[in-house]
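Slide 14.
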Amino acid sequence: MEGTEIAVRSVRTVGKNTIALELESPSEFDAQPGQFVQVRGDVNGEEITRHYTLSSPDTDETFEITVGIDPDGDLSPWLAEREPGDTVEVDGPFGRSYYEGESSVVVLAGGPGVGPAVGIAERAIADGGEIVVIYRDDDPAHEDRLLELETAGATVLVTDDSLSDNDDVNDVLSTADGQMFVYGFADFLADANDALRATGHDPDDAKSENFG
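Slide 15: predicted structure.
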């Protein structure tokens, strides 16, 4: 899908300075949880593009992206002002670090990495898989979906501390098994990789996405 105008279905707040943007899925759109799209908007006459990872478990009829709002940013405040029926231009999907039906998954997410974390976890739960989500953020988003995942049988650990120095994280990772996923900014990836090494996992085996 390249340069496709698609309609906004809804915009809702899912955390502090965080929204979930639900978009209509074009007929040819086929993406997996963990992949990302490029979103383009005309902001004050300037074309701005940014990449956002899917936060929905599937793309049936609609798909979702989770957007952290930077008040001084260029595209995210504009996206937060969209209303149902407005359109945005989308390219994609892109990315190789996505869910491929693994029976057991462990997702380490930092900040906006919670988007692909909940999407992958919900899809894996629906497929009957075993799920672990470890999420580092001092202002967690998608708390309702994380609670629903925990109720459905997933192991969910939310912390605002470093993962590599965290006894609770080490306890969970020491017994966790399955495909590892790591999503977040570079400092989080370094922290998550240290935690994986400390608990006997090889970070090179993880499917990782660096948000910058």
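Speaker note: Residues 114-126 form the longest helix (13 residues).
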